[in-house]
User: Which sequence fits this backbone?
């Protein structure tokens, strides 16, 4: 009896090209690497995922250097006439410096009378003036009004000094101060920056014990109004929520509930995005609006859910280290979460970064920021070497190259269950000047690092060296599409590339990857 002819796999082997977009879905350390969307990435360092491409982050340059000690606080004073100032506090001397200009720093508060350089702070307006209000848990509260620092007289029953105040917030035109290693929060009269302080002890509501870590205002509409809630965060992961205007009057200060959110990490553990309050906790970076509804039973509601494995590892290993801080960078639509990896002279940090427009994540490396601040809407950070750096201001890291390291999700190239030979890869990059990436094909969930070294070169004429009226100038602001094939060698059912790109003089955008593959059978 005749049987149908079996297909000759060898005769049918034909190379084909497959195109895959750049990993705009961002870093994914939550899902199995065998079940990940093709637009996600298992590695995405220094590449910012946007809606249609990934862009190499910009670098930083020195704003002010040679401060006396590692920078542990940066504070912006925003004046009513649009004239802002920037101050920095340094560890070795505990001094506070005016670092507003790019010239040498000017001492603002001599360190000889201070015990701590880790100031928590906010802006508060009253009496026609804007005040920078600062506290650190060891030194008396300081106010700055645009011309001088003063020590306000704050008194209260049972309060020996304001030097126990370690964190400050504002709610309904009142200043609230967290007392260090305590269950109490102290508050001033409306529109006051000094005078009598009143204690509110939250111990009866803290059935898990601990102390008050921070307090903040959470709003339902993104502005300041009647629907603003006062939130007390405890060291054991409880959020105590009150509504009202006057803590001294029970009819005007009502408890809304006590909720479980996971223990907050550090004193600088929250920031606001729109109407929500984002808190760094052991459970991830959680939006208070979601956490109060689900508690700790739905950790997938955390905005960091897609990078939960990375966040959990960082909080488990480094939660006690100084340097945790979130900051919103509106100019680029980025939420930056600073993660300290080491302390002291060996200080090192990474940043987990979310694109607030599409919710995609990446990680910054080689920045080593200890503290961040906005200044005139620009982003600055302080480092362990006593320098203030202007971030996102240049295409190099203080003159050094920036390396983008990326590996998209493993991909069956539209042919599941079939072994494939990977022959070539072509990366579509938009850049001014020549960039040669280091590329390695990675198959079947292996781990590889490119063995070659990424390079870059300048294609245009060099000023004061090229022949005038003969050679062409290179316009570094006009990117060109670069799409070269690279020979690769790999066999597997699924595959991807690991790519590294370096530059210190131009921007680079990653558009897509093309693969030349050849099916070679089921086994």
Assistant:
């Amino acid at each position: 009896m005749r049987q149908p002819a079996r297909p000759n796999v060898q005769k049918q082997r034909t190379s084909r090209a497959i195109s895959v977009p750049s990993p705009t879905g961002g870093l994914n350390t939550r899902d199995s690497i065998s079940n990940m969307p093709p637009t996600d990435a298992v590695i995405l360092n220094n590449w910012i995922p946007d809606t249609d491409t990934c862009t190499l982050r910009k670098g930083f340059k020195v704003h002010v250097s040679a401060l006396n000690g590692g920078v542990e606080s940066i504070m912006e004073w925003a004046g009513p006439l649009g004239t802002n100032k920037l101050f920095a506090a340094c560890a070795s001397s505990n001094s506070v410096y005016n670092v507003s200009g790019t010239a040498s720093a000017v001492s603002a508060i001599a360190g000889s009378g201070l015990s701590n350089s880790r100031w928590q702070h906010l802006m508060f307006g009253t009496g026609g003036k804007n005040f920078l209000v600062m506290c650190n848990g060891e030194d008396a509260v300081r106010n700055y009004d645009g011309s001088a620092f003063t020590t306000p007289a704050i008194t209260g029953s049972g309060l020996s000094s304001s030097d126990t105040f370690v964190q400050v917030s504002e709610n309904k035109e009142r200043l609230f101060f967290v007392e260090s290693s305590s269950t109490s929060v102290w508050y001033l009269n409306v529109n006051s920056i000094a005078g009598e302080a009143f204690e509110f002890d939250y111990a009866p509501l803290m059935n898990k014990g601990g102390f008050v870590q921070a307090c903040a205002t959470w709003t339902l509409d993104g502005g300041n109004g009647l629907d603003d809630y006062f939130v007390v965060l405890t060291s054991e992961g409880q959020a105590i929520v009150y509504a009202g205007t006057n803590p001294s009057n029970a009819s005007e200060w009502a408890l809304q509930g006590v909720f479980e959110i996971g223990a907050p990490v550090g004193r600088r553990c929250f920031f606001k995005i729109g109407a929500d309050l984002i808190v760094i906790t052991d459970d991830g970076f959680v939006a208070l609006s979601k956490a109060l509804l689900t508690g700790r039973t739905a950790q997938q509601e955390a905005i960091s859910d897609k990078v939960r494995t990375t966040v959990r590892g960082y909080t488990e290993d480094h939660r006690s280290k100084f340097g945790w801080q979130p900051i919103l960078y509106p100019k680029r639509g980025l939420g930056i979460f600073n993660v300290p990896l080491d302390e002291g002279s060996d200080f090192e940090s990474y940043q987990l970064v979310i694109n607030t427009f599409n919710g995609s994540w990446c990680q910054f490396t080689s920045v080593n920021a200890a503290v961040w601040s906005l200044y005139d809407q620009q982003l600055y950070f302080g480092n362990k070497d006593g320098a203030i750096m202007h971030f996102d201001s240049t295409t190099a890291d203080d003159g050094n190259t920036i390396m983008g390291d990326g590996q998209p999700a493993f991909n069956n190239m539209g042919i599941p269950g079939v072994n494939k030979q990977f022959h070539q890869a072509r990366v579509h990059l938009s850049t001014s000047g020549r960039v040669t990436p280091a590329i390695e094909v990675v198959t079947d969930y292996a781990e590889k690092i490119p063995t070659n070294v990424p390079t870059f070169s300048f294609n245009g004429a060099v000023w004061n060296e090229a022949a005038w009226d003969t050679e062409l100038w290179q316009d570094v602001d006009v990117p060109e599409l670069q799409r070269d094939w690279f020979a690769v060698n790999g066999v597997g059912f699924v595959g991807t590339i690991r790519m590294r790109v370096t530059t210190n003089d131009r921007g680079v955008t990653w558009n897509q990857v093309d693969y030349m593959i050849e099916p070679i059978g089921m086994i």
Q: What stands out?
A: The radius of gyration is 27 Å. Residues 9-43+404-521 form a domain with the Jelly Rolls fold (CATH 2.60.120).
